[in-house]
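Lecture notes, unit on protein representations.

Consider one protein chain, 339 amino acids long.
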Amino acid sequence: MPIIEPLPLPEDPTTVDLGAKVEAAWAELRTALAGALRELELGTQLTLTLDPTAGGTGDATYTVEFVMFDENLLHAEAVGNAALPPGHRLDRHAIADLVALGWSPPGVVDGTTDNFGLQMPTSDAGRLAAIAIRTLREVYGTPHPAFLTYSATALEGEVELPPLGAARRVPGTGVASAPAAHDPSAPLPDRVRAVVSELLARPVDELPVDADGDIAIRSGSAMVFVRITDDPPLVEVSSPVLTEVRATQRLYERLSALTKTLPVGRLYLEDDTVWAAVAVFGTDFQPTHLSTAIRVMTGLADVLDDRLQGDFGGKVFFGEALPERREPGTHGERTGMYL
């Protein structure tokens, strides 16, 4: 089974800086993008896009694209207001930020009409990548590289590129997509299985399905389940990150703090099990929402189970049970009402 590239997430607010995790993901993308730009072939166009579905930008599409004009010149464009719908256009502050980053207004750089332009020699690919990343992140508001898609094309068709960090190749490029995932007329279970099939690169009839009909995906020492409910129509992506754990005030506090740091989803205690869960609407189902949720959960569960077990004992899905680590002064603590 291929490894799903997970969205880097916080492990524990007392030991890991969420900001550092996010910065690491952006740094990984910047390095990968710089490498791709240095190797871009003549006439190849590479486009990075803030996925409007995952990013919640509606009908607005924010892009940065690159073209190798000649062997030593990279041409880049950042989308301008002419291509953006009302309500999503860049205000004067955003335009000023683009100019401060080094972009020229639309029409100034040869080859641009409606977009902001920038040209640099191939030797400055690292600097160009840094400008593009700051544009996508700071001006266009991309929360994390996992919300970006990319494609590379030339006159002869698609161009293969190494993975660009947590950014996702546009569905239908590089790896064949399952048509049912994007067919609004298909039943919800078929669309969900098609999305998981794409992520795991496995035929639909070979997906790991348990006795309850849930799709089970192993992620390190954790297990992630994809479950469909009818009323209301939802797709829940969840993981029992820790079982056989004792309910304490300290545990509730930790789960509450962790939930606040998550871009999506929540952590909660039910009976003696800590669950991590992300829900995706089944009505007006969007395949990108589910694929992002699965990538979030596979990264989250495998990080959190070990961290929480180290502090609170219990049992991870694929591992042995450990005793609770008692902190000084915790004897006799009460559960409280945190959730």
